[in-house]
Structure formats: structure tokens, C-alpha cells
Amino acid sequence: MDSIRLDSFDVFVAIVRCGGFRAAALERGVSSSALSQTMNTLEEALGIRLLNRTTRSVFPTEAGQRLLERLAPALSDIRLAIAEVDELRDSPSGTLRINAPAPAVDHFLCPLAFDFMDAYREVKIEIISDAAVIDIVGQGFDAGVRFGKQLAQDMIALPLGPALRYVIVASPDYIERCGQPQTPHELVGHDCIRRRFPGGALVTWRFAEGSENIEVTPTGRLTVSSAHNELQAALAGRGIAHVFDDYAKPYVQSGRLVELLSDWSPTLPHWFLYYPSRRLPSAAMRAFLDYMRSYDWQARD
Which end of the chain is more exposed for a tag (fewer CB within 10 A), N or C? Predict the structure, then answer.
């Protein structure tokens, strides 16, 4: 037992969190074989198998799951202790891990992070694009980004960026071939580009004009899983897309896309950056939060 290195346990947690050796190796910047050797050494020292390995997946054994449940909070406490020591430094340092959906990453989180890293050169940031609702603490993230209705009650949330707006767009070629809907109800007769969430549900298109609210379940031949692919299909004339205004704006301005039903596009709530209320943020995280509060989103445009 005395020969077990503490970082071996961190490797074990990373492999389970990432779902395999390859993903964990990429995250840590080492080879898969190095992590495999570390795990073999750990299992030999403990005298028990911690991971079940198949050709397609890696998952903890019963003993591994029990160890994981005790290790995760312990390693979190160690990281917090290191962060408290970091308070004594002249400037924040360390790594921030943030989980966020791709649209929030593209238009808000990346510009904010890029400017922040210029101001705080000893802080590293890892951004993971993921639209699934996850346990950010259990998966080792410092913060996440979601809409307000998706947040757990024990989280502290701050608005990230200005309010949002979805737009309906199509290419001039599609409009010439298929016509232009005048109301949301007329979308039923069009080839809409559908998008599916990671959980499997299709995105519902919502519209509002005055006191009237309409929800449309789009119909069409093409279904994709990302806004980038939806926009790509619209540019290719494959149908009508429903995307965030920030994605479509440059193409509308250049004439490659035409906005439809603009009077029916409601303003949506902000994205929110959230983090656990029961844990003291590190110095780097507090610096990031302060920077975000004072960030000039209008200047970014």
C-alpha cells in the first residue's frame, strides 16, 4: 500500500469519467499505454480488479465503483486545498474545466475565455462542448453552461452574454423552388431541417407574436444533431432551418440566407454559467467570474 502513488487514483477517476483509456489519455496529454500501465500497477498493489475492460467500453467493477464513490470527493478536497494554497500567489493559476452546449461555446464562452486568457496568462481553460444535462461535480468540471430551467437548485448561476433569439432561415434557391411561408402554420408544408437533442427528442420550434404563442414540430427529410449541420444544410438549399441568430447573421447579411417569419421570433432567456454553491471556487474560478461580470458583450460585436 505504501508504494501506491496518489496520482494513480486520479488516473482511475479520469478513465471512468472519460469512459475509456483513449479519451482519458487525450485529456491528460499522455499515451493510452501509460495509463494502462498505471492502472495495472494500481490493481496489483490493491490486489483487486477495479475496471472491466472490453473492446468497446471500460467500466468499474463493484470494488471499483465503491472506491470511486469515496475517491471523487476526496480528490475534490485535495484540489480545493491546492486552490487555497494558490491564494497566496500574486496571480491566479491552474486549470478551469467548463462544460457547455456548442452554441454557447461558439458565440459566448470562447470569446470570453480568449480575452480572459490574455488577462490571466497562468490560467489554463478546458472547454467541453456537450448539450447533455450532466453532473458537473461528478465529472470533474468547475462550471457548466445551460438555460436556467436546466439548473439544479444547489447551483449558483450568472447570466452569460445577452438575451438570445432563434431565427428561421432558408436559402434564396430554396425560396425560389418552394415558396416562402407567411405564418408558422405554413411550415407544415415545407421541408424543414430537424435537429435532435442528445437525449433523442426533436427540437420544437416556438413562435410568438403579440399574445399568440405557437409551437411547431418540424417535418422534413433531413434530421441532424448540431446547429452547424443544420446551418450547412440550409446554405445548401436543403430546407428551412431554425438556428440561433448569431449563427445565421453573417449569411443573412451576405445574402446567402433569407430570414423568414421575423415578426414571430421571440427573445429567449440568457445562457447561464453555473457552479456549485457548496464549494469555494478556486482563485482562478473567482477571477473568471469577476471577469465575466464586467465583460463588455457589445464591444465584442
Answer: N
